[in-house]
């Protein structure tokens, strides 16, 4: 068996090793030592490191908050696997079944009321406004008529109906004479409440004419109609009375009427414009 003899390093290998060691020593001598301050990381890199640390802290805090928010779920509604939480009376109520309540019959039968609502149309609003305008116009006309009446009364100084009743101008009475006296006042203006030739309303005109024959009448168309006897239109003669609802005048023959019509008009003869009337004769 051959004997192993270790080989010695040759002279060239030794020389190379010595040169490498010498070169390394020279490099250390030439290269200045690194200052401790220079070894520290640059200032620009410090915020990055601090930011990373801050991010870790925020993530840790967020995980803690999420874990905390999950805790009340067990406090309010503990599960069966958490025996450390006791069941409250409120929790037991949430698990209760549907309950039945008995109500007395008088309560069940109690009437129920509710508010009603009706929409108003534009036409209804306009109609209401028109009715208001008409009412205001009528009131204005009434006030004007009263003022006109006061003016006419102040301007008239002749005999009144009362004067004629005390001393009748025509002691004898007949229908023809009544109608003839009535025609003398054609053209006299209508005045609300008027009963003299200064101005007449419908019943004031009839009252003033009959007063001249010594016949007293109320200042009312309904009252005057009640004084006479109702006759047929076929028997009517000029001088009889035409009675309507709220209005009257003298029958003028041939379906005509002599009357004081309305505010703004004068005593005149015209056709009877309605069938809703009847004839009354005074003195029989």
Automatic annotation (TrEMBL):
Biological processes per GO annotation: proteolysis
Domain of life of the source: Bacteria
Family: Belongs to the peptidase C40 family.
PROSITE patterns registered for this protein in UniProt: NLPC_P60 (PS51935)
UniProt-listed SUPFAM superfamilies: Cysteine proteinases
Cross-referenced Pfam families: NLPC_P60
Keyword Protease among UniProt keywords: yes
Organism: Agromyces terreus
Name this protein carries in UniProt: Cell wall-associated NlpC family hydrolase
Record-annotated NlpC/P60 domain positions: 172-284
Compositionally biased intervals (Basic residues): 15-26
Region of interest called Disordered, as start-end residue ranges on this chain: 1-34
Keyword entries, A-Z: Hydrolase, Membrane, Protease, Thiol protease, Transmembrane, Transmembrane helix
The organism's taxonomic lineage, starting at the top: Bacteria, Bacillati, Actinomycetota, Actinomycetes, Micrococcales
Sample GO molecular function, one term: cysteine-type peptidase activity
Membrane spanning residue stretches: 52-77
InterPro entries (alphabetical): NLP_P60_dom, Papain-like_cys_pep_sf, PG_Endopeptidase_C40
């Amino acid at each position: 068996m051959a004997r192993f003899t270790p080989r010695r390093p040759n002279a060239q290998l030794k020389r190379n090793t010595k040169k490498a060691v010498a070169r390394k020593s020279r490099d250390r001598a030439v290269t200045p030592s690194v200052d401790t301050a220079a070894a520290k990381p640059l200032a620009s890199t410090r915020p990055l490191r601090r930011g990373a640390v801050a991010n870790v802290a925020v993530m840790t805090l967020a995980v803690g908050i999420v874990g905390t928010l999950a805790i009340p779920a067990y406090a309010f509604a503990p599960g069966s696997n958490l025996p450390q939480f006791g069941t409250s009376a409120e929790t037991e109520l949430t698990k209760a079944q549907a309950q039945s309540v008995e109500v007395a019959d008088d309560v069940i039968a109690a009437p129920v009321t509710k508010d009603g609502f009706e929409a108003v149309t534009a036409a209804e609003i306009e109609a209401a406004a028109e009715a208001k305008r008409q009412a205001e116009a009528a009131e204005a006309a009434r006030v004007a008529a009263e003022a006109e009446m006061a003016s006419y009364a102040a301007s008239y100084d002749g005999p009144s109906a009362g004067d004629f009743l005390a001393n009748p101008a025509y002691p004898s009475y007949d229908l023809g004479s009544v109608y003839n006296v009535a025609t003398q006042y054609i053209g006299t203006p209508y005045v609300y409440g008027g009963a003299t030739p200064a101005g007449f309303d419908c019943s004031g005109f009839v009252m003033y004419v009959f007063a001249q024959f010594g016949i007293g009448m109320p200042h009312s168309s309904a009252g005057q109609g009640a004084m006479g006897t109702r006759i047929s239109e076929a028997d009517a003669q000029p001088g009889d009375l035409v009675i309507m609802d709220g209005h009257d005048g003298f029958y003028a023959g041939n379906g005509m009427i002599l009357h004081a019509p309305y505010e703004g008009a004068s005593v005149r003869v015209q056709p009877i414009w309605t069938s809703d009337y009847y004839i009354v004769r005074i003195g029989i």
